[in-house]
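Bit of a strange request maybe. I'm writing a small parser for structure token strings and I need a real example to test against, not something I typed by hand. Could someone generate the tokens for this chain?
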Amino acid sequence: MKRKSLFRLLTTILGVLLATALIAVGCGDDDEDTTATTAPPATEAPVPAEDPIHVGLVFDIGGRGDQSFNDSAAEGIERAEADLGITFDEVSPNDDGSNRANLLQLQAESADLVLGIGFLFVDDMRNVAAANPDTCFGIVDGFIEEATDNVAMLLFAEHEGS
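Reply from user aminoacidic:
Good idea to test on real output. This should exercise your parser:
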């Protein structure tokens, strides 16, 4: 039962991340002076959490402040905290990204759900998810062909952006 609720939460969080990313892309411009856009208000009331779900968020290189993909994920996870009552930890890989697997594993040791932001997490997430079958994982903008039941994937259809 807990796994179903975790996947439902994962789907909701990934939906929030997708909506935030689409709003950021759609409202952005090419000027250097960018202004943060606000996502539309949630359509459902926050879910009261007796025992809140703990999410481990692993950004891609650059982390918060990249004014792009990572910032969209940060906005989405903060909205999930406000609207859904989750708790979360966030980490960023080193400059060459060589510690992605270590960060995923560290988050898996304490989180109910681990999110990897970016397609460069595919190989590491496949391995870490296989080693942690009781933890739910989600990857944004990546596809794992041999994914197990504990991995959800969110892919963008770039060709449908217009």
